[in-house]
Amino acid sequence: MNWLSGFLKSLSYAQEGIVYTLATQRNMQIHFAIAFLVMIFCLVLNVSRLEIILVFFAIVLVIGAELVNTAIESVVDQVSGEYHPLAKIAKDTAAAAVLLTALHAIIIGLLVFHDKIWPLRIRSMSAFGIEWYLVALGPVVLLYFILQTIIRRKRGSAPNRAIEKRGVAPDARK
Ligand SMILES: Nc1ncnc2c1ncn2[C@@H]1O[C@H](COP(=O)(O)OP(=O)(O)OP(=O)(O)O)[C@@H](O)[C@H]1O
């Protein structure tokens, strides 16, 4: 039971990280919007299992890189409140990693979808294999985190990076 509650706690911390990034980082909001759209394309268009794997790999890479970038930005802001060349290197390099994954995702997206959007190639009813149901989980997961972020914002408990940067904890915000 201890093991289970520890596991659930670490899941909830990970969820906090995603909600925080989604609430505070404009780029993450853009990644989520594009990922949602692309997942709908995967559901509707005639996309093969291998293409789905490539597309989902690209999405996870971008979102993962944005999470790590946010983690690095936060640590840098905490450690070095003032301008420092090393802080600049850390932030610029982390941002470059996100850019690289985003370029990779654009290339994958173009290669996979360019001949399916025009002329429109809709998935045939016989092509609803197991991967279709797995892909359908994607938008559900994204919507879950979007809803969590909206609910926290409404409650006034969503983190605010601008305020944090000025050194006020999110909970102190009223
Ligand atoms: N402490 C610092 N020392 C040196 N350069 C910094 C420092 N903080 C930020 N920078 C420079 O400013 C750029 C933008 O930093 P910032 O923290 O605003 O990133 P951001 O991507 O806009 O993040 P956020 O979304 O949190 O505003 C960095 O990539 C870096 O070049």
UniProtKB/TrEMBL annotation:
Q: Which residues cross the membrane?
A: 30-47, 53-72, 93-112, 132-151
Q: Which PROSITE patterns match?
A: DAGK_PROKAR (PS01069)
Picking any one GO molecular function of the record gives: metal ion binding
Q: Which cofactor does it need?
A: Mg(2+)
**How is its cofactor bound, per UniProt?**
Mn(2+), Zn(2+), Cd(2+) and Co(2+) support activity to lesser extents.
Q: Which residues does the record give as substrate binding sites?
A: E66
Name any Gene Ontology BP term.
phospholipid biosynthetic process
Main location (coarse class): membrane
Q: How does it sit in the membrane?
A: Multi-pass membrane protein
Q: What InterPro entries does this protein map onto?
A: DAGK, DAGK_sf
Q: Give the positions the UniProt entry annotates as the active site.
A: E66
Listed GO cellular component terms?
plasma membrane
Which UniProt key words apply to this protein? ATP-binding, Cell membrane, Kinase, Lipid biosynthesis, Lipid metabolism, Magnesium, Membrane, Metal-binding, Nucleotide-binding, Phospholipid biosynthesis, Phospholipid metabolism, Transferase, Transmembrane, Transmembrane helix
> Which residues of the sequence carry a binding annotation for a divalent metal cation?
E73
Per its UniProt entry, which superkingdom is the organism in?
Bacteria
Query: Where in or outside the cell?
Result: Cell membrane
Annotated ATP binding sites = Y13, E73, E82, Y83, H84, K91, D92
In the record, the note on similarity to other proteins reads: Belongs to the bacterial diacylglycerol kinase family.
UniProt name for this protein: Diacylglycerol kinase
